[in-house]
Amino acid sequence: MRDGSGAYGHPRRAQAYPRGNRIDTGTHEPSAQAAEVLRRSSGRHERTLQVLSSVPGRKQHVNTFRHSMAALVCAACALAAKTLSLSDAENKAVATSFEMRAQHFEERTKEWEKRNAVAGYLPSVGYSFEYTQMDGHIVDAANEGFESFSGMEQIPALLGLLGTQHDFGDSLNQAFAEMALAGQADDAGAGDPFSASRLYATTFKHAVTVTQPITNGGAELIAIGIARDTKQAVEFRFEAVRQEVIYNTRKAYFDALAAAERTVVARQDVSWTKQNLANARVRQQSGAIPMTDLLQWEAEAARKESELLLAEATERFLLLSLYQAMGVQAGRADTTARLQPLETFEKWYTSRRDLAGGSAADNPQFKSIKAFTRAAGGYNRIAVSQFLPKLNTFWSYSWPYFVDENRSLEAREEQRGWTAGVTVNVPLFSGFRNSTNYRQSRYSHMKAQVEEQQVENRLEVNLKRIRLFHRAAYEGVGAARKQQELMEKNLDIMQKRYDGGLVNQSQLLEVSLGARMAKIGYIQKLFECLLYEAEYLKAVGKLEVTQ
Fold it and tell me: Taking CA 154 as the corner, what is the angle to CA 148 and CA 158, rounded to the nearest 5 degrees?
């Protein structure tokens, strides 16, 4: 069913479950490069400020340069941060998932249940030891009774006491006579027919018994089939949980990356607003714009700063959520880690996959439900087998010992030997218990069949929904990208017209807001399309860790 190997010897597992939660993010080491960038830029920063400050009327350029240097420092710090790829995140989540560990142990349990069902059809071998101690008075009285009837001439009198049936007495008398003749020919018996029946105060008995079930109404073979079906059901459920873990991790990664991109947009918006604020100060001092426009730019800059702080907080929270999906504790999460660039996933969009293949029958969850339905049918057949006869064979070998009058251990050779036979048990009436068990198992099987059909219909509808929304999302990504490009061009045109005094501040801010929302809309549409694709692969049982 699966190929490859992985954790706990189970097929198709990404890797063995490691100890601890330390993440190997597959990072680079650009720390030396980042330090060199910071060292070289710091010296040039001071010299450039001195040059710009010496030029009259160039204070706005000084402020712009300061913002550029701040962006450079942020870029150098980001370069020094570690990179967490989607593949590393998914592999870590699969390796540390508690749900997958629980399903693994459940699978091992079903494996041993299957072996237990097979063992129920094998012969059973048992050894027994019996120790008996009797009161000496009882033993002596019983042996005296045996000796008093040892003479064959006293047997007719004994038979007269047993009853008046003369024919029965003659037959039994003849049998005792034959026993006496056989005893005379036996040196060990010394002619005493009761020598083998003497009682001793202390006796021991060893026995070995072998029992082989022949048929129990077919219940043994049915139980093996049930164990096989339940094991397959757990294996399919493990695969469903594995793909669910991959999907949740991918969704958390996309959410965190979208938040990071929104933070980048917010930083760009703050930088753009501060540049316009610096220009507004210069223009207000020259009397080109009124004081109200300057105050409005200051208020807009403060609002953009607040939005940037909110975007950064959201980014950190979603990054923590990503580590939580990976199974990493919050105290060990690296909130400074960088995610893969957006261009990587834009290539996913350009290499569109066809979502036409696959059906609900390929879903591992549905396969698990079908296996459980087959197991329910097996329990129904077991209930029917309770009405059928049961046949078993047995073989036993025993050898007794006794302690004689001299306190020595002696073997009772006349009772050593084996016995074998066949037992047949035909159930006639069990207080309607078999009938009630049959009814209960039958309705349980019918319920499982109905639930299987219900799940199949739900999965088919879900597949159609994913196909429809994925097609719409795919087309929406192209439209959002085109809208983003147009809004950026419109913003550049509006910025030039505002600098030339052709449009007012409100018109520029309105276009700026539209351009920002277009960028955010494009990011959301892109990840929405990729998530629909991952959801479809999960629905048809083909979602794998990103390579």
Answer: 90
